[in-house]
Structure formats: C-alpha cells, structure tokens
C-alpha cells in the first residue's frame, strides 16, 4: 500500500473511531486526566488525532478554506474570548477556592471541542464516499446505544435491579458509573444526556432517512431499512430515558413535521378548488374559509397532542403527577408549582442567570464565570431546595445556569447571544436549501439538520455545555453536504466498491 493510501486509511480509522465513540459522553480516561467532572466525550481523543494528522496540514494547503457557514461561529468564538478577557476587570465575589482563570480556560476548551467537531466534520467530508462512511459509523454507534439501553431496561424491569457486572462495565464507560432505577442511560452520563444525544443527532438522522426513504446500508427486514428499525428502537429508548425535556424536544420535531404536512394539505386544497371552481364563492372559500377552518383544526389538534402527552406523562412519571393541578400556581406561586413537578431548581438557575445578565448585559461575565455570582443573585426560594444546597455548599465545582440559552446571555452577553443565534440561522437556511436539493442524501441531511435545530431549541433549556458533540456533528454534516457535488437523483442505497478508502 502506498504512502498516500496509508495516509487516507489513517484518516478513515480516526473518523471511524470518532463516529463509534460518539455515544460516550463522559469517558473516565479523559475526565480523570483533565479533572473534568462530567462532560468528557470519548470521541474527542481520535478527533484530536484527526486534527493533527489531517486538519492542520489541510489548513495550510491551497484547498484549506473554511465553509462560509463557519464565519458567524468564528465571530462568536472571538466574542467569547473577548468577554472572558474583560472578565478579569470584573470584581468577582469569592466562591470557595474556585479559580477564575481555570474556569475560563475550561469554558474556552469546551467551546473549542464543540467547534472542532463542527469544523472537522464540515471540512473532512469532501466526497460522497466520505459522507457515506461517516453516516454508517454514526448509525452503528447509535445501534450500540439502542442495544445497551434495551439491555438495561430488560434487566431492570425483570430483576428490579442491576447485576454487579453491569455497574463495573458502566464505570469503564462513564465517569460516574451510575445506572438509574427505571430509567435507561445508555452510554451517557445520565438519562437526560442520553435523550440529548438521541434528539440532536441520531433521531433526526433516522427520522429524515425514513421520510426521504434513503439508507446507507443494503440491510432489509420485511422491507424496512436499518435506519427505519433504528428510528423505532431510538424512539423506544428515548421513552425509557424518562427525560421530560427529551420527550418535549422530540414531540416538537414531530409537531413541525405535522405542521409542514398540514401546510401542504392547505396548498393542495386551494389548488383543487381553483381547478374545479371559478366563481367568486370559490375565491372566498379559497382565501378565507379554508385557511381559517384548517387553522382552527390545527390549533385544536396541537393542543390535544400536547395535552394528551401531558396526561400520559402525569400517569407514567411520578414527578409529574401534579401537572394539571393548577391551583398550586395560585397558592404557592410559579416556583412552588414547579417544585411540585421537581422542576423548581431549573427555574431558580435560569432566574439567577438572568439576574447576572441584567448586571452585565453586553459581554457577560466570561465563559464559566456565572457561578461566582450565584450566592448574591440567587432568589430566596432557591436556598430551600436540596439540590441547590448541595451545589452551593457540598459540590467541588461552581454552579451553572443549566441552560445553553441562559448561559449565552449570562457569560457572553447579548452580543454573543445574537451572534450564536446568527450562526444557527445560517445553519437553518443551509438546511432549508438542502431540503429541496435533487440529491436524496443531501435532502436527507437538510431535513435532519432542521429537525435537530428544532430539538436544540428545547434541549437548550436543559443542557448548557458546548462540549457535547451531537448538534455540532449534525450541523457539520449538513454544512459538508451543502458543498458536495453529488449527482441529482442519486440512488438511496448504492455503497461504492473501492479497493482503498479513496481512489
């Protein structure tokens, strides 16, 4: 094998490792080496290898340009650095022995990790062969998540517990080694992170491939592709995670698909009336009656969908048994009602973050620094919550806002917040354009990115870290697909024969 083929093979091995290791959110080897408490994606290890082996040489080559979609992200990164530098001019309240510089460094590192997943995905995939390869290894990683999660569920519901060997294995895979009663966690740090990775990478891909009837495998069972089966299994795993935000995020993606289908129905109804009737009455029906009637039906249907989901949730999850007892809002206030739903802590974190933002609205307090202000800005009710007390007095790290959106406002200010949203808007425009592309795989990735963006809006209220690689990877796939010269109407499944990773 020539030196060039060895070099290409090494790239494929590294990217294959990245895709297969994506399910591991808090790998002990990384967490212990860098003293990270939770977010330590195992895929970052081969990603660093790919960065050194391929990206740095690529960057200085004549073809080493970045996609235009990265420009707002680079601007945001610059604002984050600027905000963190200006943070040294802020008089920080003391918080145990926490070091400001260490928190800023860790915050910038997590942003760098997330950005690296996006940039390397968007730039390494420069051919249809590479795209198919990356999609296959990502799907295989998702299959591992499903199988291990099902094993956890079957073990719990048949034994009401887990054998010792499962705890030992989980301790090698996650930094906390925990398995949760009645909730599957897959290969993630906790069930909510399992829901996060499903909603922001795997389920959008499986749902989009199902809608577009594409696949990257030849495998079939009763006419169903592997991605179709993964969608069913992934949906079941999401349900078994009992992540309320995860359920809501997936429900919103389904609502978006239903809305798109309904808009298509409205346009079709108008066309049919216009085709068969040419009277003033038809024009009035077409312009007023049909849109109003369908709008009423849609609002009622969506309200029923969300109320039905809430009813099911209140019956399945003990935390939500008081969901429809709205008298608690009147007697105990919004925070008291949220406390009955075991949700008050999140509201307290968000409210505290907003108070910090109100004091430093333009550039915030720098990445990783919001927690220093929690003792001053915490609402009184928060001090009565057990989780808040543990975070403030017993945990070895400073608190955070538990929301990506609140964190952006608090730590990078309105300037950073708007810039980050600008990047997401650029990704949305790219995804919309891909969703109308003639190539089936491009169209699939466009739809997947749109569904992932919708899920991110909801998931952003639950997870606040930049280091989890799932939405970065999904948006990187869409960015790469937007620049690929794929042939129109390409076959949905046509694995290419090749003697080496690239001819």
From TrEMBL:
Subcellular location: Membrane
UniProt keyword Transmembrane helix present: yes
Record keyword Iron present: no
Keywords assigned by UniProt, alphabetized: Membrane, Transmembrane, Transmembrane helix
Name assigned to this protein: O-antigen ligase-related domain-containing protein
Source species, domain of life: Bacteria
Spans through the membrane: 12-31, 38-56, 71-95, 107-125, 131-151, 221-241, 247-268, 289-313, 413-432, 444-463
Membrane topology: Multi-pass membrane protein
Organism: Thermanaerothrix daxensis
Domain O-antigen ligase-related: 231-421
Gene Ontology CC, one term: membrane
């Amino acid at each position: 094998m020539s030196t060039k083929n060895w070099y290409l093979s090494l790239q494929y091995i590294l990217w294959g490792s990245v895709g297969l290791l994506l399910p591991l959110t808090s790998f002990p080897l990384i967490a212990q080496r860098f003293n990270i408490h939770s977010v330590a994606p195992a895929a970052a290890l081969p990603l660093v290898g790919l960065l050194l082996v391929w990206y740095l040489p690529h960057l200085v080559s004549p073809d080493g340009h970045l996609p235009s979609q990265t420009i707002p992200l680079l601007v945001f990164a610059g604002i984050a650095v600027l905000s963190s530098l200006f943070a040294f001019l802020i008089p920080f309240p003391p918080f145990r022995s926490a070091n400001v510089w260490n928190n800023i460094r860790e915050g910038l590192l997590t942003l760098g990790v997330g950005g690296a997943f996006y940039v390397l995905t968007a730039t390494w995939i420069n051919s249809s062969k590479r795209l198919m390869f990356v999609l296959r290894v990502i799907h295989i990683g998702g299959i591992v998540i499903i199988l291990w999660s099902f094993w956890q569920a079957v073990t719990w519901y048949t034994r009401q517990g887990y054998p010792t060997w499962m705890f030992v294995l989980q301790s090698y895979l996650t930094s906390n080694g925990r398995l949760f009663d009645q909730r599957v966690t897959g290969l993630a740090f906790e069930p909510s992170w399992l829901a996060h990775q499903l909603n922001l990478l795997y389920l959008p891909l499986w749902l989009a491939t199902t809608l577009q009837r594409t696949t990257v495998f030849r495998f079939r069972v009763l006419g169903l592709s592997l991605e179709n089966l993964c969608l069913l299994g992934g949906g079941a795993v999401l349900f078994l995670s009992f992540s309320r935000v995860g359920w809501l995020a997936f429900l919103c993606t389904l609502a978006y698909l239903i809305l798109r289908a309904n808009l298509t129905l409205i346009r079709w109804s108008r066309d049919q009336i216009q085709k068969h009737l040419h009277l003033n009455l038809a024009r009035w029906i077409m312009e007023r009656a049909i849109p109003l009637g369908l709008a009423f039906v849609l609002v009622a249907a969506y309200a029923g969908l969300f109320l039905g989901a809430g009813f099911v949730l209140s019956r399945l999850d003990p935390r939500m048994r008081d969901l429809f007892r709205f008298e608690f809002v009147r007697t105990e206030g919004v925070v008291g009602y949220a406390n009955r739903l075991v949700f008050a802590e999140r509201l307290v974190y968000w409210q505290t973050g907003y108070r910090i933002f109100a004091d430093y609205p333009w550039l915030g307090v720098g990445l990783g620094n919001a927690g220093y202000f929690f003792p001053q800005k915490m609402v009184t009710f928060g001090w009565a919550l057990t989780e808040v007390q543990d975070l403030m007095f017993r945990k070895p790290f400073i608190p955070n806002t538990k929301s990506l959106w609140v964190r952006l406002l608090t730590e990078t200010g309105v300037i950073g917040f708007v810039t980050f949203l600008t990047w997401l808007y650029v990704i949305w425009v790219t995804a919309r354009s891909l969703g109308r592309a003639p190539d089936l795989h491009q169209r699939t990735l466009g739809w997947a990115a749109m569904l992932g963006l919708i899920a991110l809006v909801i998931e952003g209220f639950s997870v606040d870290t930049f280091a989890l690689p799932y939405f970065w990877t999904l948006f990187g796939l869409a960015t790469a697909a937007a620049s690929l010269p794929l042939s129109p109407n390409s076959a949905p499944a046509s694995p290419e024969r090749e003697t080496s990773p690239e001819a």
